[in-house]
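Re: [help] complex structure
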Amino acid sequence: MNVIYTDNNATTQVAPEVLEEMLPYFSNQYGNPSSIHSFGGNVGKKIEEARSKIASLLGASSNEIVLTSCGTESDSTAILAALNSNPEKKHIVTTRVEHPAVKNLYEHLSRKGYRATFVPVDKDGNIDMEYLLKNLTGDTAMVSIMWANNETGVIFPIPEIAEEVKERGIVFHTDAVQAVGKIPINLAEVNVDMLSLSGHKLHAPKGVGVLYVRKGTKFSPFMIGGHQENGRRGGTENTASIIALGKAAELAAAHLDEENTRVKTLRDKLETELLKRVPNCIINGDRGNRLPNTTSIAFEYVEGESILMMMDQYGICASSGSACTSGSLEPSHVLRAMGVPFTAAHGSIRFSLSIYNTEEEIDFIIEKLPPIIERLRNMSPFWQEMKKKSA
Amino acid sequence: MWDYTDKVKDHFLNPRNVGEIEDADGVGDVGSLACGDALKLFLKLDEHKRIKDAKFQTFGCASAIASSSALTEMIKGLTLEEAKKISNENIAEYLGGLPKEKMHCSVMGRDALEKAISHIKGEEEKKIEGEIVCECFGVTDREIERAVRENHLTSIKDVTDYVKAGGGCQNCHEKIQAIIDGILGVERPAKKEAPKLTNIQKIRLIEETLEREITPTLKKDGGDIALIDVDGDRVLVKLRGTCASCSKSELTLKHYVESKLRELVAPELEVEEVQ
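Output below.
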């Protein structure tokens, strides 16, 4: 069975060019980049090349790039570094819709003596700016706000937020794991102090991430050890994956236009056709302000895991905001923060596309999904009740 | 991905007995949209009071649909007395087992069956028995007790897997633990509150600890420490000897002196160096 992969906000396929680039560093090019001999030193040079490609994707300079093991490590490093450099301040700010990498760390810190503010969003998933600004005080040590939401794709106005936060002398970090490679980012013009990204969301392998640290930002390492990364992150480099990420960054820059044209068109087609063919479904999030590859569709009166399992029979891969898929009992905190009603939250499905998706694949989903929803609705007592009421 | 058995997948993809019985003798309706799953069970009896037909409507995940389908197959042909004996464990067994986190789907089947049987017998809708323990999912102490006893549950997570209680805001975890402990006969000692020290006791204890535990260690490296003042929970000290000029003095203070004092005197102490 063919796999139709529309779950690219979860992870992406490693680009063939990326795989080719990294393979030698698993076999004959195994030198330690820190070694004095040229066998290792040459690997070190490749890492510096990769660093420079990553920097250029972000509009940064090489010495602002710290290589890590994943997006979560980058987030933890950034947040804890900001707190270490402002030990007298005990207030931290984020949003209610962050990824667990930030949300759970903030909850942890709030049990350790920090006061955490979680800024709400409106029904379209847009941030409440007034609430944010009102809550920035002299005691605020740092603000961490995601660039784009992983579940709905809604984009936060990071340039404006960064200006406001920096104007008040507060450290600003953004988790840009979902945004990098999908929308243009130029840190020469956006005043963030630190930014996290993750390799496997942009066609590099899992197990490599980046923390951008603006020159002049006070920093302390999370992993303490050797001199690697200029003392900002100890530990021997994950050489093959870093070199892969360099290549992936180069490709991401080259494919940015395609993401915002062809991929966006496919996403829009998928969305429009499903809305046309399936009654009682709703798009979660501001349709005019989203990543080009993401759509979150709520199919009312049915449950997400069942939809995913039935799509799985056709090889279609997507995600759900329903409780049952994660093993937790409550639906996604993002959809709840937006006030999506339970009738819709449990039946929300996220499709996230990539440049590797084809129009045939999208047509296949458009053909297969409506009968699945109909079938599950015919089983659902709430759908029956709703029909009786409206009849 | 859930590790569903082939039988669960079969009953999910090809559910038996989906639908409604217009002239049902009994209907059992459990769960809600908010909870994420719900089951409406319809029963029809024959002239010998055996279950002639059973149909269901389910909103929920794959295992909820499979559990409902399995239940309808299991009870056809049974008398109400026989059907009443079916436990949630039986439903799970019929399906070759369910992932632990999904056991609440089998409990939902059992609950719907009980409700439908009561309905046939004309028993009054049972009022909610006991007190609500889990506010998020509306689960009572009686329901938790029953799940613990019937399924030999031993942890809060078990209880959440079977009846959902404790799976939301988690504020009820202490109460759930108390119910489990009550049934298992475990007694837990009440948390001991450390006796509050008076100011003089605190200062004396800090002095003693510095003298007995901390100074000898620092002296080994040619350093020393002097207590300057105690202001509430702030312990003001001055480092002397080699410590005073050591670039690691901040670490010594925080990691060694402060943690020793917190351990041996009071956990809320903060050590500061006065210049």
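The mean pLDDT of chain A is 95.
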